[in-house]
Write a structure and sequence with these properties.
Elements (H helix, E strand, L loop, with lengths): L7 H22 L3 H20 L14 E3 L4 E11 L5 E10 L6 E3 L4 E9 L11 H4 L2 E7 L5 E8 L5 E4 L6 E2 L4 E6 L2 E7 L4 E2 L6 E2 L5 E4 L1
Antiparallel strand pairs: 1-14, 2-3, 2-13, 3-11, 4-10, 5-6, 5-9, 6-7, 7-11, 8-10, 12-14
Helix pairs in contact: 1-2
Length: about 220
């Protein structure tokens, strides 16, 4: 299992801290039930972090112009027409993926194109599955313009626990499918804003895989 670079330091520090804590308890409590309880809890916490920071090796081989691929692992929580007022200022079809703490949190580029806008916005830390989190939470907004001029907006959104959004692609970059877009640390969400005529290939509540599941066809 490959560990994402964003999690390497956290995993090292957590492992050292838990190791010291359990060693101290082992010496002080003389094999008491408290020691075994903390040991099991430590194994559970570290296993959860390993699962969270895993970086799946995936390649999407069936890409063609107009295909929009899932930018993240998670559950579809929104499919609706909305007014996008931050950048596009027009009606768009919003498709949102909620990532729980059990999902891998690496984000993927959903389509080929050129990044014409990339901006980070400070904000609040509402639960990521709430509708208001799309515009009120801390977030990063990326606009990818495809070869035919169609613009796709991708929005990384922090959640109630997430405190850091990392975006690798910047304005002026040429981006491609199978490329990592960024990473969000702990529970969060990714929104896609597509043209209204897009044919959505997923349903509400569906579980999707980043860089694997086709979200829509334009």
């Amino acid at each position: 299992m490959k560990i994402h670079k964003e999690g390497s330091n956290i995993l090292i520090y957590t492992f050292i801290t838990l190791l010291l804590l359990n060693w101290i308890l082992y010496r002080v409590t003389n094999h008491s039930l408290l020691f075994y309880f903390v040991l099991l809890l430590s194994i559970g916490i570290f296993s959860l972090l390993l699962n969270f920071f895993r970086c799946p090796t995936r390649k999407f081989n069936d890409y063609r112009q107009g295909t929009i691929v899932a930018p993240a692992d998670g559950t579809i929580v929104v499919i609706e027409e909305v007014m996008e007022n931050e950048y596009l200022h027009e009606m768009r079809l919003q498709v949102s993926i909620f990532m729980s703490v059990f999902n891998a949190h690496v984000n993927w580029v959903p389509c080929d194109g050129k990044v014409i806008h990339s901006a980070h916005h400070d904000g609040r830390f509402w639960a990521a599955y709430l509708p208001k989190s799309s515009m009120e939470n801390e977030r990063s907004t990326i606009i990818i313009e495809q070869a035919d001029g169609v613009q796709i907006l991708v929005r990384q959104i922090a959640g109630a626990i997430a405190k850091r959004i990392v975006t690798y692609i910047k304005k002026g970059h040429e981006c491609r499918i199978n490329q990592q877009l960024g990473f969000i640390k702990f529970g969060s969400r990714v929104d896609l804003f597509l043209p209204l005529q897009a044919k959505v290939e997923v349903k509400m509540g569906a579980c999707v895989k980043g860089n694997q599941t086709i979200i829509a066809q334009l």
